[in-house]
From TrEMBL:
GO terms for molecular function: allantoicase activity. Belongs to the allantoicase family. GO terms for biological process: allantoin catabolic process; purine nucleobase metabolic process. Pathway: Nitrogen metabolism; (S)-allantoin degradation; (S)-ureidoglycolate from allantoate (aminidohydrolase route): step 1/1. InterPro entries: Allantoicase, Allantoicase_dom, Galactose-bd-like_sf. Pfam families: Allantoicase. Its EC number is 3.5.3.4. It comes from Asanoa ferruginea. This is Probable allantoicase.
Amino acid sequence: MNWLGLTDLASRRLGGGVVGTNDELFAAADNLVTPEPPGFTPKTFGPKGQVYDGWETRRRRVPGEDWAIVRLGAAGIVRGVVVDTSFFTGNYPPEASVQGCRVDGHPSLDDLLAADWVPLVSRSPLQGDTANPFSVSRDALVTHVRLVIHPDGGVARLRVHGEVVPDPVRFPDGFLDLAAAENGGRVVGCSDLFYGAPGQLIEPGLARTMGEGWETRRRRDAGNDWVLVRLAAPGRISLASLDTTHFKGNAPGAAALTGVDDRKADPADPAAWFPLLPRVDLRPDTRHRFPLRTDPVTHVRLDIYPDGGMARLSLHGHLDDGVLDTLRTAWLPAPGGGRMR
């Protein structure tokens, strides 16, 4: 399932959140979008019973179903959903379904309940204590999803993997962080992820700890480590930020940036890549900023020498000609005042 490598549009790290549910008596629905894997401590009881790291509703005594509505942190095209029932064994829902809608702006819960919801995942069986994956084949821009469990029970996490479609209202002049995950940037390759996932490099905000960055093991050879980022859209980079915050005894000694435009050349061809930032020395625990003037690129490779850790990578610049118009077309109001039909 290639879509498992796509961005989790619902993640709290991108600003995803639960905006409404009909029941969360045993465990809060907010847990559904927690980015960290679910945990469990047996025989840990609170006023309402065993404490679960997930969403759990009361036992139904009348026919019906329970639901939770999630505002996506980044709107986009959903390619797959994971309904994770980890640690729910005798209390997981036997079935679930997922719906989606597009409602622009900042809708209230009443607005969302009245929206035109369409199926993303039809009513399907679940296994307990399992990350249940479901592919989605609907090509439509989605801003919210609704998880429905039939009839009740507990779900640890909801992952909504897809392709970000950045809203151009946030960058009317076409200037943005082209690498940022919330804008559609994505890590598509790296040499090593021993201590930290490279996808964290392009997450929003500053890293709070070393654990929120990318760190490789110590090299004992003559090579160097690298990470490859597919930009949100083709663009010209004018400012690169290489942030080693929290990395004090393990920051890279140096770094360099190269780029390629896959509309003109094959990224698999080493000769197609050209320099964006020549090799420069880095300092520990420092936010480095380098002004650039580049040709349009679709992919950027960060090389660090020889190894080490980095907190964030930002690549600010302007979208290439015509890209902003394409995004504006994708975000044209849908029938029904912005709601997806």
